[in-house]
Amino acid sequence: MSRTQAGAVSMPAQTVPIVITGVGLLTPLGDTLSALSGALQSGQTAFRDGQPREARIEDFDAARYAAVRGMRVYNRTTQLAICAVKRALDDARLDTSAELGERAGLVMASTFGHLDTLISYDRSLVSNGLARTNPALMPLALSSAPGAATALAFHLKAFSLTLSDGSAGALDALGLACRLLRTGRADSCVVVSAFSPSTELSQAAFRAGIITASPLASADGGNDTGFGEAAVALVLERPASAEARGVEPLGAICSQSSRFANDPGERWLRLGQACEDALQGSQLGAGELSLLSCEAQLAGQGARQALERLLEGSSAALTLGALLPALGETLDTGGLLQTVLALDQLRGDRSEAAGGPRKHALVCAASHTGACSALLLARG
Amino acid sequence: MSPRRVVITGCGLSTAAGGELQQFWRSLMAGTCHIHPLRTPSQVGLESAMGAEIELTEQELGSVEVGSGDGERGRCALLASLAAQRAWQDAGFRANEEECERAGLVLGTTLGEERQIGDLSQRWPAQEFSAIDESFFERSDNFRLAALIARALGLGGAVMLNATACSSGNAATAWAYDLIASGSSDVMLAGGADTLTRVTYCGFSRMSALSKSVCRPFDRQRDGVSFGEGAGLLVLEELEHARRRGARIYAELAGYGISNDAYHITAPEQSGEGFVRAMQQALATTSTALDDVSYISAHGTGTSYNDLGETSAIRTVFGARTSQIPVSSIKSMLGHTNGAASAIETIACALALNHQAIPPTANLNEPDPAFGSFDFVPGEGRAARLTTCLNLSAGFGGFNVCLVLKQAP
Description:
The complex is a heterodimer.
Chain A: E1 18-26, H1 33-41, E2 54-55, H2 62-65, H3 76-91, E3 104-109, H4 115-128, H5 137-140, H6 145-153, E4 160-163, H7 169-182, E5 188-195, H8 199-207, E6 227-228, E7 230-237, H9 239-245, E8 251-260, H10 267-281, E9 289-296, H11 301-310, E10 317-320, H12 324-327, H13 334-348, E11 360-366, E12 371-379
Chain B: E1 6-14, H1 21-29, E2 36-37, E3 50-52, H2 58-62, H3 75-90, E4 104-108, H4 115-127, H5 136-140, H6 143-153, E5 159-162, H7 168-181, E6 187-194, H8 198-206, E7 227-228, E8 230-238, H9 239-244, E9 251-260, H10 273-285, E10 293-297, H11 304-318, E11 327-328, H12 331-334, H13 341-355, E12 357-358, E13 382-383, E14 388-395, E15 399-407
Parallel strand pairs in B: 3-7, 4-5, 4-6, 10-11, 10-14
Antiparallel strand pairs in B: 1-8, 1-9, 2-3, 6-8, 9-15, 12-13, 14-15
C-alpha cells in the first residue's frame, strides 16, 4: 500500500526481502561495527575487575550522540536506544523530521527497559507519598515508555511498538518490522533494542542463576556470564524506498520465524524448527548458508546437537554463544548484535569454497522462557 | 497474493461484568456500571478510589490450567489465563491437541504483574536487596504472562508479548491478524490483560486525570478516567480453516490501521490527527467505504483531551455522516482496563455484530456541545443493523490502532 494506493493490502510472500540500510550501536567494546568486530576478533572482553556481574559502557554521555529535548529525564536504557537510533538514521542518511516521519516507524525489543523507572517511581510513592513524587515519572514507568520516547525523539509517526520477548525479542521485532513494511504500513522502520541492567535486576538475575558472580573467572565462557550493556539499531526499508533514495543496502532480511517451547526439554527442538521454518519461508536449504549464529541462554550441548543436525551436509560455520564471554548477557539486544555481526561477516566473506561465496546467514535465539526465533539474512 | 481472510471464532473474558459471554453482553446492553468504591483503596495508594474490580469465584480460581514448573500466578496472569482458556474452549479447541502445534499467541499488557513491584517497595525500607528473591527476575518478565498461557494450552507457534500501553490489546490483535493473513499461522490467540495498579492510579491522580467518581465519556462534566481490571482474548482463525471444521464465526476481522502521534509522551495530539491517519488507513486497506461503517467503539476514556481529540478525528474522517454513526464507550461501564481494554472492546464489537445491537455509553447526562452532533448511545443499548464496526484505541506515547470488524462471511 502506497500513499496513493487504495484497496486491499496485498500480502507478499516472505520471499520478498526487506533491506537494511543503516546500523547504529553502542557497546562496551566500541560504538561502531568495525570497532566491535575488531575487538571480538582480538578476543577482548568487556568485563572489568570491580564490575563482576556487569559490563558497562564507560563514560557514556548521551549528549555526545544526540541532541534530543527531554533526554535527561529518560533512564539510561532509553538514552542508549535514542543514541543508537540516531547513529543508525545517520548511517542510512534518513531524515525523519520532515514528511518522511509519517512513513517511518519504530519497533523496539525491550523486556526490562522500563523496570528501573517503575521500581523508582513506586518506591517513591511508598516512601515519600503521592504529593512528593515526580508526576513525570509515571508515563516513563510503563513498559512501552522507552520505545515511545525513542519514536517521539525522531518523529516516527507510522507506528511505535514494543515487543517484550526476552532474548528472542530482537529477532521477533525484525520479523514484525518486515511484515509491517511488506504490507505497506511504512516505507522505513527502525528496529532498536537497548539493555542497561538495574541493580535490582542484576541481583534478581544472580539469584536466579541467569548471571554469575565472576564472569572473568569462567575459563571457557560457557554459561557463566554477567550482564552486558548495549544498544543496537537497524534501519529497515522497502527495497524501492532505498533505491529511490540512492542508498546501497548493507544486507537484506529474507524471512523470520518464531516458535514456542512448552518445556525446557524441547527448547532446542523448537529452535531448530524455527530455523527450518525461516529457511522454508525463503525456499532455501541449509546448504546455502555460510553461517549459523545462535545466542541462547543456558545453551550447551543440546543446542549444538540440534543445530548441527540442521546443518548436516552444509559447510556453514556454527557459532554458539560467541558473544557471551565478550559482551555478556544482553537479553533483548543480543539478537540485533548477532544480526549486525552476521551481516558484517557476510559482507566480508570472499571464500573460494565450492560454489563460490555463500550469500546467506541464519541467526537464531532462544529465551529461558521458551520463545524461539530465527532470522534469515542475505548479503547486500 | 491476496491476504487470507481472518475470522473470530472464540472469545474469552475476565471482566467486572463477568466472564461468561452472554452475561457480559446482557450487562453491557443494560448499561450497568461496574465502577464502585474499591474494597481496599490502599492497594492503589489512595485513601479512596473507584474502580471496576473482578471477584473471582473459587471455581474460577480452581479452573485455571497450570503447566508443570509454572510457579504461583499473580493476579494479571490469573485473569489472562482464565480469559485465554475461555476463548480457546469457546472456539471448540482443547489444550495440547494437534491444532496447538502451530497455533500461537500475541498478548498485550501495560504493566503486567505490577504488584510484585509494589511488594518490593513495601519491603524495601527494612530489607533492601534482601527483599529480592530468585523468583523476582522471572516475575518481572512480562513475557511470563504469555508463556503461562502458551504452556497451559500447549501452543507451539509464535508467542509474543507486546507492550503498547492502552493500545496493547488492539496491537496484539493486529499482529496476530498479520500472521494469519500472511500464511504464517492458521490459528492465533490475541488480546490483552491488566490489573488495578498503584502506579496508574497515583499517576493519573497526580496528572488530575483520574475521575473523582465514575468516568463520563463524552459528557460535558467528564473529569477523567476510571480504572478497571480485566482480560480479553480472541481466537483468530483463517476463514477456510474455520469453515472446514464447522466453527462458529462471530465476525470477520477485516484488517486494521495504525499510526503514532509522536507528539508527547502522554498527551494526545489535540486535533486527533493520529486517530485520523489510523482510521483512514484502516478504511483504505480493508476497502471499507465511509457509508459502510455502522458503529464505532471509541477509546472514550472520559478525559478532556482524549474525548475531544477522538471526536474531532471521527468528524474529520466521516464528515457529514458523523451524526449517523453510533459511537459509544464501554469504558463507562468496565472502567479503563489499560492493556485489556481494546481487546475487550473488540469482543464487544464481535458480539454487537452477532446480536445486531449496540452497547451504550453509560453515565452520560449531557454530551459536551464542543463535540458537535454525535449519537453516543446514552444509557441503554439498542438494536441496530450492523455490517461494519470500527474499534479505536490510543496509548500513552500516541500509538493509535483502528480495527475493522465485519459481519461473519
